[in-house]
Amino acid sequence: MTLPDRNRRFLLARVPEGMPQESDFLLEEEAIPACPTNGVLVRSLWISVDPYLRGRISGVRTYVDPILTGSLMESAATGQVVESQTPHFKKGDFVAGMWGWQDYAAVDAARVRLVDPHEAPIQTALGLLGGTGMTAYFGLIELCAPKAGETVLVSGAAGAVGSAVGQIAKILGCRAVGTVGTDAKAEYIRSLGFDAALNYRTELPYKESLRRVCPNGIDCYFDNAGGELTDAAMALMNFRGRVSVCGQISQYNDRSQDVGRRPFTEILVKQLRVEGFIVTRWASRFAEGRKQMALWLKEGRLRCEETVYEGLESTPRAFIGLFRGENTGKALVRV
Ligand code: NAP
Questions:
Q1: Distance, CA 52 to ligand 1 centroid (Å)?
Q2: Does domain 131-280 have CATH number 3.90.78.10?
Q3: Atom 21 (ligand 1): residue with closest C-alpha?
Q4: 131-280: same fold as 6-124+305-334?
Q5: Rounded distance, CA 40 to CA 24, Å?
Q6: Phi/psi class of residue 39: alpha, beta or left (left: φ > 0; alpha: ψ in -120 to 50)?
Q7: Sign of torsion, CA 48 54 60 61?
Q8: Structure pTM?
Q9: Is 278 in the pocket of ligand 1 (CB under 6 A)?
Q10: Residue 133: CB within 6 Å of ligand 1?
Q11: Pairing state between β 39-48 and 330-334
């Protein structure tokens, strides 16, 4: 295959105010980069869009430095090696890495990992067998430590992380309950084996509707959403319950500085354990997590829908769609 002579890539044009707009990103063209010594030139096939990127384009340091205005939009991607200058990879290999929103990338060998296309479709390396799957697996098992028979509530349950959390909870013998933004998503998570679903947009007030779907209270809460729903969930936690704080997507574009309900009395009297995490905490154990998730996937005990946007040019739209609830399962761009 002869390579085109131009590479298209998205830069951050400006720090978004509230909800990101497509005009916050700039598509530019440059020469295809040279294959680096000790590295590979990769052609992107799939790009992952993820809510955490909202924090990275907020102009301030969170747990990592921000992506600066004028810089490449970084994110996970999978692709195929088109040229190699390292013995670790050969032309034609499928790889995954963090090379971002672009057609081609020159990447150091240490910053990519091999993807086996026979194990699962290669985009699964961005979903159940990638950061998404590791977030669900370690965030649930390590921080919630769910026991068979317990009730596990997960918010953002039809999304990439949330749908995996509920399915893992079922594998562990728990009662899995999810909150979602549409009735179709409620139907979807029931089809995955969730015991109950709550549409947080229509089933109000939350305390009553949560009590309906969690009649025995909540032992484990895996929170992707935050906001008022989480306030209500905290009030229904059982004695010595565990809360894994994974994401707060309802707050990412919110500039209202709403204080919300203070949960500390609840934490105190019920002796709850509430812990936030960044998945890279378990990076040294990803091989273990991936092995277990791959096994469950092979056994048909895990499934994940994909919401696919076509073409690199659709990447900003795909990203913004996360905050509009457009995706069911993993949101991906097919380059
Ligand atoms: P996702 O759930 O596949 O996609 C985002 C979903 O969030 C949307 O489909 C939408 O579903 C829901 N949402 C959007 N705006 C919302 C709002 N205002 N209130 C409630 N829900 C809203 O994304 P993901 O990649 O799986 O990530 C899920 C969460 O995990 C995010 O908060 C993300 O930041 C977090 N995360 C954390 C880590 C970590 O290391 N801590 C790693 C990965 C992801 P509905 O239609 O159901 O509203």
A1: 9
A2: no
A3: 225
A4: no
A5: 30
A6: beta
A7: negative
A8: 0.97
A9: yes
A10: no
A11: antiparallel
Q: Is residue 1 predicted with pLDDT exceeding 80?
A: no
What φ, ψ does residue 203 adopt, rounded to 5°? -95, 90
52 lines ligand 1 (CB under 6 A): yes
Residue 279 CB–ligand 1 contact under 6 Å = yes
β-bridge pairing 77-84 and 94-97: antiparallel
CA of 311 to the centre of ligand 1 (A): 23
Where on the phi/psi map is residue 287: left (φ > 0), alpha (ψ -120 to 50), or beta?
Answer: alpha
Phi then psi for residue 302, to 5 deg, are -125, 140
For 178-195, how does the pLDDT look when each residue is reduced to its tens digit (9 = 90+)? Answer: 999 999 999 999 999 999
Structure tokens that stand for 241 in this block:
């319950």
- Name the CATH superfamily for 6-124+305-334: Medium-chain alcohol dehydrogenases, catalytic domain (3.90.180.10)
DSSP letters, 141-202, are: IIII---TT-EEEEESTTBHHHHHHHHHHHHTTPEEEEEESSHHHHHHHHHTT-SEEEETTT
Tens-place pLDDT, residues 246-305: 999 999 998 887 778 899 999 999 999 999 999 999 999 999 999 999 999 999 999 999
Residues near 40 by beta carbon (within 8 Å), at least 6 away in sequence: 81, 83, 84, 85, 86, 89, 93, 95, 106, 107, 109, 112
> 161, 183, 223, 306: which to mutate for ligand 1, most atoms within 8 A of CB?
161
Sole residue written with tokens 């063209």: 29
Backbone angles phi, psi at 294, to 5 degrees: -65, -35
Ligand 1: which of 54, 185, 224, 274 to mutate, most ligand atoms within 8 Å of CB? Answer: 224
Cβ(163) – ligand 1 distance below 6 Å: no
221, 152, 209, 159: which is closest to 188 by C-alpha?
Answer: 159
* Domain spans in the chain, listed from the N-terminal domain onward: 6-124+305-334, 131-280
Determine the longest span between alpha carbons in the chain, in angstroms.
Answer: 66
3-class SS of residue 268:
helix
